[in-house]
Amino acid sequence: MANITRNGLLIILSSPSGAGKTTLSRRLLEADPNVAFSISATTRPPRPGEEEGVHYYFKEPQEFARMAAEGEMLEHAEVFGHHYGSPRLPVEAAVNEGRDILFDVDWQGGQQIKNSALGNQSVSIFILPPSIAALAARLKARGQDTAEVIGFRMKKSRDEISHWDSYDYVLVNEDLATCESELKAIIRAERLRREHSKAALNTFVQGLNAEFERGLA
Ligand SMILES: Nc1ncnc2c1ncn2[C@@H]1O[C@H](COP(=O)(O)OP(=O)(O)OP(=O)(O)O)[C@@H](O)[C@H]1O
Ligand SMILES: Nc1nc2c(ncn2[C@@H]2O[C@H](COP(=O)(O)O)[C@@H](O)[C@H]2O)c(=O)[nH]1
């Protein structure tokens, strides 16, 4: 059987706060052992139930600034008044092992990853809510942020949504199961893109040509 190894994909998910990135990420990670999650560093305080090294690496502002200054982040940005960034080493390790890595980042992070040396191995997906009323209702129903924080995030959502047009794919997360299956379909197709396994395909086609030359056709 043909064994065409490929490079790991960088899967970038962005959306306004509350549109469903975390929920979709969780489902994808549970269903697909070849996808790892890029655990971000942040200066935001933990929410109830959030664990160090599982949901985020929680950092003091000074330590975060050091990591950014010393190039330890693949990307970093200020979002909703806190700093967030994706540590570089786990991403490089995953990609070299041929594992895909999933990023839950804002548009600034998505843009920086696209412009990085690994950008040609990335696919970016923007998640839209079915309506602004539904977005507000989801943030309230999540029950993890104060009314003030929710109000601030809702105000910022218009700006985040304005970047939808720079993503490779755009999904509307109305029905969760439908959106999850669309996300999985994108990943399945992206894994098969010629650019993502070019070296292995070259070798494979050389093998086919060698068969021609041996007169096996
Ligand atoms: N299709 C959907 N229908 C109804 N509720 C949904 C749907 N998708 C997600 N939710 C709910 O909406 C809330 C917000 O989702 P989630 O936390 O995944 O958003 P997020 O985009 O990761 O937000 P943030 O950027 O703030 O981390 C959660 O309570 C989640 O269960
Ligand atoms: N640029 C980056 N953005 C990130 C990163 N990790 C998370 N985020 C984005 O921040 C907001 C808020 O997240 P929350 O957990 O406080 O609700 C959301 O849009 C995330 O996508 C990161 O490493 N870099």
Automatic annotation (TrEMBL):
<dbReference type="GO" id="GO:0005829">
    <property type="term" value="C:cytosol"/>
</dbReference>
<comment type="similarity">
    <text>Belongs to the guanylate kinase family.</text>
</comment>
<dbReference type="InterPro" id="IPR008144">
    <property type="entry name" value="Guanylate_kin-like_dom"/>
</dbReference>
<dbReference type="GO" id="GO:0005524">
    <property type="term" value="F:ATP binding"/>
</dbReference>
<dbReference type="GO" id="GO:0004385">
    <property type="term" value="F:GMP kinase activity"/>
</dbReference>
<dbReference type="InterPro" id="IPR017665">
    <property type="entry name" value="Guanylate_kinase"/>
</dbReference>
<protein>
    <recommendedName>
        <fullName>Guanylate kinase</fullName>
        <ecNumber>2.7.4.8</ecNumber>
    </recommendedName>
</protein>
<keyword id="KW-0963">Cytoplasm</keyword>
<dbReference type="InterPro" id="IPR008145">
    <property type="entry name" value="GK/Ca_channel_bsu"/>
</dbReference>
<dbReference type="InterPro" id="IPR020590">
    <property type="entry name" value="Guanylate_kinase_CS"/>
</dbReference>
<keyword id="KW-0547">Nucleotide-binding</keyword>
<keyword id="KW-0808">Transferase</keyword>
<dbReference type="InterPro" id="IPR027417">
    <property type="entry name" value="P-loop_NTPase"/>
</dbReference>
<keyword id="KW-0418">Kinase</keyword>
<comment type="function">
    <text>Essential for recycling GMP and indirectly, cGMP.</text>
</comment>
<feature type="binding site">
    <location>
        <begin position="15"/>
        <end position="22"/>
    </location>
    <ligand>
        <name>ATP</name>
    </ligand>
</feature>
<keyword id="KW-0067">ATP-binding</keyword>
<dbReference type="Pfam" id="PF00625">
    <property type="entry name" value="Guanylate_kin"/>
</dbReference>
<feature type="domain" description="Guanylate kinase-like">
    <location>
        <begin position="8"/>
        <end position="188"/>
    </location>
</feature>
